[in-house]
Amino acid sequence: MARRIRPPAKAASAPPPGARRRSWLWLVVAAVLLAGAAGLWVIQRAGGGLPRQGDEPPAAGPLNVLLITLDTTRADRLGSYGHAPARTRHLDRLAAEGVRFQRAISPAPITLPAHASLFTGLYPFAHGVRNNGNFYLPDRFQTLATALQARGYHTGAFVSAFVLDRRYGLARGFDTYDDRQEAPGSQIVTLEAERRGDRTALVLHEWLDEHARRQPNQPFFAWLHLFDPHEPYRPPPPFKEAFAGAPYDGEIAFDDAIVASVRERLERLALADRTLVVVAGDHGESLGDHGEETHSMFVYESALHVPLILWRPGLLPGGTVVEPPVRLIDVAPTILELLGAPPLEAAQGRSLVPLILGRDKAAPPAVYAETLLPQFYMNWAPLRAIRDERWKFIDAPRPELYDLQADPGETRNLLGEHGSVARAMARELERLTGGSTGANSSGTMDAETLEKLASLGYVGAGAEPARGADGSRADPKDFIGVFNQLRRANSAVRERRFDEALPVLERVLREDPRNAFAHLVLGSARMGMGDHPRAIAQFRRYLELVPTSAYAHHWLSICYIRLGDQANALREAEAALAIDPRFSDARVMKGGILAARGQHPAALKELRLAVETDPEKPLLRLDLARVLAEAGQLEEADLEYTTALSQ
Fold first, then answer.
1. Is 475 in contact with 488 (CB distance < 8 Å)?
2. pLDDT per residue over 515-540, tens digit each?
3. What is the Rg, in whole angstroms, of the alpha carbon atoms belonging to the chain?
4. Least confident of 398-407, 408-417, 442-451, 567-576
5. 447-646: which CATH number, 1.25.40.10, 1.20.120.450, 3.40.50.300, 3.40.190.10?
6. What is the number of H-type helices and E-type strands within the chain?
7. What pTM was computed for the model?
């Protein structure tokens, strides 16, 4: 029977809140890259179980750490969290033999902010990463990876989605940061390029094999990110057939098999008994709850409640279930204490070790969550939430208060009946956030960047878009149907079903001309259809609303190059790089234009910078090798071809 750690009893009063050789090399490199892109799913059917927990102490020497983050995974879709139809026996076994946190809460229903919080132990308003795609974790923040690397750990990250690309700041502290993706066709604009989880795991397997051969006595920290449960829900066979009526559950079952394959690899390499395994969801998925089909727009529990499991027999008390609410910002402090390492500097999270051992009798701290996506993409109001063991308050144009003990589905707003509770929680929210909106680490629009953009003709770039005349914004819950339509239109554009998407996008923009997301998706649709002049118009309108978007400038550059306008294409690539100097795609674009003009030294400078920024991506080296060959630098070109082949 599971050992349950419950919250302490509380008072009833309201709680606080060379041409031939080169040709041969090129063919081999291309063949290898194509084979990698079409890799087969090789995860074997997991047999047996995890090692049984015993009383033996952990193996001598520093523990390894394996962190697995499950993207878009709500807790109540795992068997160990009560979902009877789930096929998650390997994750459930980890939970049964380790520590399972019943109520782990994400600080944001968005991938990049949630991961930034997990690694820093800070809330989004402190580290400044408030959304995907246009935010960057500043170098000044210590992370779990930088802390472990400084302690001599061999570190590797293996991520499955472009939203966690190295340019966003999470690569610091990792010796290897493998973020290669299986991108969609270049005609389509998307930030959702991904790599299937089994293919990401294969790269981790190779890294573990090499570690065991070359550095068997050095501890490692490996992070595996699995993106499969993110929409669209398309699990591979046999999960596709087994979950024909519940494809989201099929994606989670697929990830369960991937987790089993990694565990088996650890056992085969004799590393399992020296490895602390941590499994955490980054955020959940609404699946229609409160009218939201996916995530990112609301801060209800279905999008925030995530699985959190720690496993290491002999170190952690097996079969433990921790009932009080905990936070993703507590994960890094907990790992560091279990390793005997100093805590992160200025972390807002706390170690959960005392709670695991039943020694923490104090009331748990308040739990904060936010989504600013409604403001950034839709020009609607942002949402913030704060909760304790019973109550949850949502700060919105029409505020909400829920009794989570009596109403875990958040269906009855009790604001009118319990105004004093709501006011107390609102005060706690202001205290926690310092009474401000917090840090905002978006595109680097400092004085130098603004000067660069002004020199490129972007006078006024960086200004905040104006609000309505009364300074108010719409409540997202009043327009969730519009957001769902836009998400479906975005999916249709990715799948080149333009006739289906265009009427929706045009109707939304007639009713709401300041909807940035609609302009972005419509620009993508026009670009995919080859209507580049109208795509340019939409991307320019998007830039008026989101002036720090390096991507919009890059997409404009692509449109101009397809129109044969090298001058404007170069201008837009330079604008993208002014905002984000780490944007390797924009560097490749700039380098390609310069090479086409015969300016090979300048082109090579840009392409070398691109490779330096993203050294794990072989396609960048191929671009560099091609221009080196054009410039007559054949030996260096061959070296880059060979390096790309080795990747």
1. no
2. 999 999 999 999 999 999 999 999 99
3. 25
4. 442-451
5. 1.25.40.10
6. 24, 16
7. 0.86
